Amino acid sequence: DSGNIKVGLEHLTPAEQAKARLQMVLEAAAKADEALKAKERSEEEAKRRKEEDQATLVEQVKRVKEIEAIESDSFVPQTFRSSKEIKKSTEPTELQYEPITITVGNLEASAPEKEPLAASIPTAIKYQDDNSLAHPNLFVEKAEAEEKWFQRLITLRQERLMGSPVA
């Protein structure tokens, strides 16, 4: 009430009265602002709930239709196919290399015994036993491994140039 406010402010000086009125106006504005924000929040929350309810209704209708389609006589069950299997089948398979064995040949009699032929000296361990833990393709000469790597790099770059995504 403006009457109660005037009675409460009569004992103050005019400057203090103006300051007190300004303070009351600011407090009233803050309360009104809070009320508007609360109203906006409640409206937004109601709108969000309504959208969620509509989304769930759409999902429920879709689910019911799918169940009806499965339960109908015209439904034909199919085997499940994973997308990973499709990716595996489209990837190029890497070439399998046969294990190479190096045997020390007969040395010529004219060659000194201390210096055997450099080409016939094995440079890596080669396993011929099928029951071994290490695969024979793991032991390759350095030059051969570099050549295989270089060829693989070339094929990957060619695939990339042709537009194929390279993993």
Automatic annotation (TrEMBL):
Biased composition (Basic and acidic residues): 34-53
Residue ranges of the region described as Disordered: 34-55
Domain of life of the organism encoding this protein: Eukaryota
GO biological process, one term: alternative mRNA splicing, via spliceosome
GO cellular component terms, A-Z: cytoplasm; nucleus
Name listed for the protein in its UniProt record: RSRC1 protein
